[in-house]
Amino acid sequence: EVQLVESGGGLVQAGGSLRLSCAASGFTFDDYAIGWFRQAPGKEREGISCSSTDGNKYYADAVRGRFTIITDSAKNTVYLQMNRLKPEDTAVYYCAPTEGASCAEGVIYWGQGTQVTVSS
């Protein structure tokens, strides 16, 4: 059974930093791309970062240069280091593996998410 447990969210002031963690189990971590997504109130869920199995990392324009995705295969964990946070980063953040090695693949499994709130 695939399980994804996100943690590390919270309330932070604009300009601050947070580090999200996602502990994954139930699949071979190194065989799948894994990404971070977020859903703000009243908006659709969006992909913001992804790490493919060949080591390439992708970022949405809104977070490029501020967020960094880090994978730790030994711990089956993916992190999202978020710096210079803005109020518009407020959302529930999710991690999810794709259906294959590429970040272009679809997503089936989701964790419960972790809330990030950035105050101005």
Task: Fill in the keyword field for this structure.
single chain; 120 residues; mainly beta; 6-stranded mixed β-sheet; 4-stranded antiparallel β-sheet; 0% helix; globular
CA gyration radius, whole angstroms: 13 Å
Helix content estimate = under 10%
Count of extended strands: 10
Tell me the distance between the termini: 40 Å
Beta-strand content bin: over 45%
Q: Biggest sheet, in brief?
A: 6 strands, mixed
What shape does the CA trace take? globular
- Return the string of H and E elements: EEEEEEEEEE
**Please, what is the average pLDDT?**
95
What structural class is derived from the secondary structure elements? mainly beta
**How are the strands of the largest sheet arranged?**
2-10-9-4-5-6
How many separate helices?
Answer: 0
Uncertain segments are none
